[in-house]
Write a structure and sequence with these properties.
mainly alpha; 3 helices; 67% helix
Length: 92
């Protein structure tokens, strides 16, 4: 997605005539090709899938153990440890 050009591949679809007509009408209304119309539908579905997957992972994380308080002090300590770890890697 985004502005980068992806390699295009062909995909053959067999659809009932009613769906083919509907796709042609929707593409025409959007002033796009049927290919662009289907690509937009797939991108939208891809975004929905990604959101659902993220929600699953968030629930999994919430259920993964005992809750803990996360304060500014906690994050500052994490940053300091990460920074120290990265500094050691650079020095090697």
């Amino acid at each position: 997605m985004g502005n980068t050009q992806e390699k295009m591949t062909a995909l053959h679809l067999a659809l009932p005539e009613s769906l083919t007509r509907f796709a042609e009408e929707r593409a025409l209304a959007r002033k796009s090709s049927i290919s662009d119309y289907f690509a937009a539908l797939l991108r939208r579905d891809q975004a929905v899938f990604a959101k659902e997957k993220l929600e699953e992972l968030l629930v999994e994380g919430l259920q993964s153990g005992e809750p803990m308080s996360v304060t500014d002090e906690y994050w500052n300590e994490k940053r300091q440890k990460l920074s120290a770890s990265e500094s050691r890697k650079i020095q090697k």
